[in-house]
Amino acid sequence: MTKGILFRCLLIWSFSVLFFTFTLYLKKSIAGDDIGLLREDFKKVCENGFGDQRNSYAWSMAWFKGRLYVGTVRDYLCIAEFLRSDYPEEGYGNSIVECDLSPLDAPEEFSAEIWRYTPGIGWDRVYKSPLISVTLKDRKTLVIPREVGYRGMVVHTDVHGEEALYIGTLSFPGYANILRTTDGISFTPTNPTVPKGPLAFLGTYSFRNLISFNGKLYTTPSSIKIGNVLGIVKVFESAEPASGIWQPVSTGRFGCFENETVFELTVFNNYLYAGTGNSKTGFQIWKTDAIGNPLYNWEIVVANGAGRCYKNESPVSMYPFNGYLYIGTGIRQYAKIEEKWLPPPAEIIRIAPDDSIELVVGEERKVMDTLISPISGYAAGFGNPFTGYIWRMQEYDGWLYVSTFDTTIFLSGLAKEVKPAFLGDWIFDFIEKEGGFDLWKTKDGVNWTQIAKDGFNNKFNYGIRTFASTPLGLFVGTANPFKDNNLHDSEPIEGGLEIWLGSFFEPFH
């Protein structure tokens, strides 16, 4: 490159930075001191599952070494039904979707993928699950995808100072793994074990949570059945996750038999927090400073679903923001909608450093003879009865962004059975108008603004499953498990995951 060309490139880059800064300042000056991202600031950078509608969810997302990585799950509603039904050979599905293929006869169609976004270049697929030969139950040897989904991602620096991206998988029971990459190109299975051997994770379908805290990596084994319920209800820790060696750091079920799963992990105020799923008495929140020898000392912070009991079954999302830990709730077994039962809408609570709690969005009630009301003024689900989860939260540029899982689209299964026909037609009209996730933002946790209520103009985008705050802006990854003609007889479906980028600066798109 000649000096003249280099000088012109530097000049253009300098001008772009100055223009970006001026545009951002002007935009905020016109609209107010600080307005956060608006709907028009979000632009679609990937559609229809990277061109393959079987890429259902942007199930995991992380910014690693200057690039965005996205892990997919394949044909989610069908693979979940397949695993829950103990591997039917044919004719499976439910009232919501029809499943055209099985992992047994088309394993490559269910191999999960990892995609990478490089600024200025775009997307490329960097990994696809290999196929393996296994014997399942009494069947003959079968060829299946080793992974059907990549469920969580985290960047972690180990005790040797080596930074790597770790990825939790969804697999057939007993084959769940955690992948590791240091360069974003080579992905190596770490084969998680405990010091006494690998049997502690036998039967595990997935590792849902991956959290880095004080130089160690933490995870929880999970399932895909019955709302992620699994017999192993513990938090595990590894000082050297590349070695695959893990050890439990909590007692089973935190001593409460009715705790069915450890659903969420996060770090707040120098503590590791764990949230349990409990469909009987409501979720619990526990915390530990993770000091000393495992098993660590854990303190309970929230019990009985923050006084709402089973209506707050799980903490689906947990995120620290502006001195509080925000908890988004939900009912894990949303398939109950198929049984004509509408779960109660989700709430948001927040925990202060002194462990006191406030109801942010939710149902007014008495707790220990004290009346609590939502400080935002919003009822559960932000007033939307179809808000099944407060699914994900992410801070960007001083604002907290919160996404929902909207169950409206599932009414399509009910509509097919409704008589007379005009009532079914009315339901489809309602889905057209109300379907799709909601996206909200707040600066202080009290005052909230809705950014979108229609899944970014796609009723099949029933949730935002992932966020990533990056130098380019706020990346958003959707959950959309629908494919052409698998929902009901209709026009072609805008199915497959989508990636959107929220930014104040248009050229960065």
Low-confidence stretches: 9-14, 28-33, 335-340
Number of helices: 6
Query: How far apart lie the N and C ends?
Result: 27 Å
Helix/strand class: mainly beta
The main β sheet shows up as: 4 strands, antiparallel
- Radius of gyration (CA) equals 23 Å
Q: Overall pLDDT, averaged?
A: 88
Q: How many runs of DSSP E, i.e. beta strands? A: 32
Name the overall outline.
Answer: globular
Write the layout of secondary structure elements.
Layout: H1 3-31, E1 42-46, H2 48-51, E2 55-64, E3 67-74, H3 76-84, E4 113-118, E5 122-128, E6 131-135, E7 141-145, E8 149-157, E9 163-170, E10 178-181, E11 188-189, E12 206-213, E13 216-222, E14 236-238, E15 247-248, E16 261-268, E17 271-277, E18 284-288, E19 299-302, H4 304-307, E20 314-321, E21 324-330, E22 348-351, E23 357-361, E24 365-367, E25 370-372, E26 387-396, E27 399-406, H5 411-415, H6 421-434, E28 439-442, E29 448-452, E30 463-470, E31 473-479, E32 499-502
Antiparallel strand pairs: 1-32, 2-3, 3-4, 4-5, 6-7, 8-9, 9-10, 10-11, 12-13, 13-14, 14-15, 16-17, 17-18, 18-19, 20-21, 21-22, 22-23, 24-25, 26-27, 27-28, 28-29, 30-31, 31-32
